[in-house]
Amino acid sequence: MFNLLSKLKMKSPSKERLEGILALGKWRYVLTRGVLMFGLVLPISAVSADYLQGESLQLQTIMVALVVGPITGLGFGLYTWADFNRRNEKFMKVEG
Q1: How many Å apart are CA 11 and CA 49, to the nearest integer?
Q2: DSSP conformation class of 40
Q3: How far is residue 9's CA from residue 96's CA, in Å, rounded to a whole number?
Q4: What's the number of domains the chain is made of?
Q5: 4 in a domain, yes or no?
Q6: How confident is the model at residue 89, as a pLDDT?
Q7: pTM score of the predicted model
Q8: How many Å apart are CA 52 and CA 63, to the nearest integer?
Q9: Which residues form the domain of 84?
C-alpha cells in the first residue's frame, strides 16, 4: 500500500522550473496561477458542468461561484507560492 502511495507522489520540480516560477514575482504568480487559473476556471467549469447536466442556471449560484472562486484561488496561489519558496530554499541548502 505504501509503495503504491510513494509512486503516486508528485515529482519535485526542477531547479530551473523553480527559478522560473520565482522570477514571475509573488503577486504576478498568485494572480495568474491562483486567482485566474484556479479561482476563475474551476468555478466556471463547475457551473458549466451543472448546466450541461440539465440544471438551470441561477444568478445566485453564478455570483457565489465568481466570488468564492477567486478568494479560494488567492489562498491557493499564496499557499503554492510559499511551497515553491520552501522548495527553493531546500535546493539552495543542498547546493551549499
Answers
A1: 30
A2: T
A3: 26
A4: 1
A5: no
A6: 86
A7: 0.74
A8: 18
A9: 14-95
Distance CA 24, CA 19 (A): 9
Q: Kindly report, residue by residue over 36-92, the tens digit of the pLDDT.
A: 999 999 999 999 999 999 988 889 988 999 999 999 999 999 999 999 888 888 877
Grid coordinates of 84? 515553491
With beta carbons less than 8 A apart as the criterion, state whether 76 and 31 touch.
Answer: no
In a domain, 1, yes or no: no
CA dist list (Å): 34 to 41, 55, 58, 63, 72: 10, 28, 26, 19, 8
From the DSSP assignment, how many helices (H) and strands (E) are in the chain?
5, 0
* Helix, strand, coil distribution of the chain in percent, nearest 5: 80, 0, 20
